[in-house]
Specification:
Blueprint lengths: L19 E5 L5 E7 L2 E4 H7 L5 H4 L5 H4 L3 H16 L4 H4 L3 E3 L4 E2 L8 E4 L3 H11 L16 E3 L5 E3 L4 E2 L2 E5 L4 E5 L3 E2 L2 E7 L14 H4 E8 L2 E2 H7 L7 H4 L2 E3 L4 E2 L7 E3 L17 E3 L2 E6 L2 E4 L10 H9 L10 E3 L14 H4 L20 E9 L5 E3 L3 E6 L3
Parallel strand pairs: 6-22, 8-16, 9-25
Antiparallel strand pairs: 1-2, 1-5, 2-3, 3-4, 6-7, 10-11, 12-15, 13-14, 13-22, 14-16, 14-17, 18-19, 20-21, 20-23, 23-24, 23-25
The protein binds manganese (II) ion.
Manganese (II) ion (MN) binds next to loops.
């Protein structure tokens, strides 16, 4: 049955999608909403009138209370929304709570807890290894045994559309370190996983519990200052080169919208240890587009990732570290095996040596706008869109 919501039937924002977000109208008050077509549905007043068991969670000003609800409650809400948006009998009750997206402002959807960034693409890790360590094996010895990651900075996670100030810092100079605005500003096209139900401190989350703890996914651009990174990262890994800003999409796509997107993983050889059981690992068939100043410069395929979302969560918690509602873990740069599938400018420019794209770019220049777009197979047979991530580079302070 088609939705009655204006313009939504057959679009990438049909009832098989229904991502959640936070919006405000002219008065600035924040509301939890769900997107249908080019409209957002205000959920709190509807849920209150219908006495839904998620009503109090939906009255919040971010998605955390909703994400912390149990799977039964979330499934109930999603089923109710699909029903109310397709059955014409519900239109008089529901339609007054729709607002065109052109009339709202969208906000950071979650109160971000801890942020972890992985490095889960074999093709990205190999490309970077070849650029930085041309005389060695591209992958370091641990890479195929565990999903390499680091703890990032959650306080500087910003919503799509937020301007990104070019960072300044130390980089290697001819005769010693120099300080100044980064000259190698880059993107990392990633996918992020948002935790809903928390886990217990001391109890690892096995792969089979992935769906019980992860609420949904967001688009992520993990902006990176490569010149600062190259000088600072030994031996403890990324620090100021990454912590100045990380952009995420306004929309959080619930895992329930991605049920048609699961596909088999690339084979993992050598076989990882048991808690990273490759027989349970599944990949997501999410297609990414990297657009620079209006030109698509790359199409990274998420399904080519080496480590699965459930393996990343199992590894992140195997030492007993807990996850909390609102925690975000990102996949690391998504790069596919083919030219034209790179998830960073470092790779697109072959280590800053070869200008790419119609504007012959190496690194990002002030005023450049990068937009990441994501689509996946939907349950209705077409493709659903995930929230896009966009940002424009502002000149250094
Ligand atoms: Mn990253």
């Amino acid at each position: 049955m088609d939705t009655w919501a204006p313009g939504a039937a057959g679009s990438a924002w049909d009832v098989d999608n229904l991502p959640y977000g936070v919006f405000s109208r002219a008065d600035g008050q924040r509301h939890v909403g769900v997107r249908i077509g080019e409209h957002v549905l205000d959920l709190a007043p509807l849920a209150r009138r219908q006495r839904l068991d998620t009503a109090s969670a939906l009255a919040a000003t971010n998605l955390n209370p909703l994400m912390a609800c149990g799977q039964d409650q979330l499934t109930g809400l999603r089923n109710w929304l699909r029903h109310a948006l397709t059955d014409l009998a519900w239109q008089p009750e529901v339609a007054p709570y729709l607002t065109p997206l052109s009339e709202v402002e969208l906000h950071l959807p979650i109160d971000v807890g801890d942020y972890v960034d992985f490095y889960a693409s074999e093709h990205h890790a190999s490309n970077v290894g070849r650029i930085f360590r041309p005389d060695q094996e591209p992958l370091l010895p641990n890479w195929k045994h565990l999903p390499v990651g680091y703890h990032g900075r959650s306080g500087t996670i910003v919503a799509s559309d937020t301007g990104v100030r070019r960072p300044s810092g130390q980089r290697r100079g001819e005769t010693g370190p120099v300080f100044g605005p980064s000259t190698r500003l880059d993107i990392e096209a990633e996918l992020g996983f948002v935790v809903g139900r928390p886990s217990q401190h001391g109890s690892p989350v096995p792969m089979r519990h992935f769906q019980a703890h992860v609420f949904g996914v967001v688009g992520v651009n993990d902006w990176s200052a490569r010149d600062i990174q190259a000088w600072e990262y030994v031996p403890l890994g990324p620090f100021l080169a990454k912590s100045f800003a990380t952009s995420i999409s306004h929309w959080v796509t619930p895992l329930a919208a991605l049920e048609a997107a699961w596909v088999p993983m690339p084979r993992q050889v050598p076989r990882p240890l048991d808690y990273l059981d490759p027989d349970r690992a599944m990949a997501l068939d999410i297609a990414i587009e990297v657009e620079l100043n209006g030109h698509v410069v790359s199409r990274p395929p998420y399904r080519s990732m080496y480590w699965s979302p459930a393996q990343m969560l199992a590894h992140l918690t195997v030492n007993g570290a807990s996850v909390r509602t609102g925690d975000l873990y990102a996949s690391g740069t998504v790069s596919g095996p083919e030219p034209g599938q790179e998830g960073s400018l470092l790779e697109l420019s072959h280590g800053w040596s070869t200008p790419f794209g119609p504007q012959r770019r190496l690194a990002l220049e002030d005023g450049d706008t990068v937009t990441l777009r994501y689509t996946a197979p939907g349950a209705l047979g077409g493709r659903i869109a995930l929230g896009e991530v966009t940002g424009t580079i502002l000149p250094a302070e």
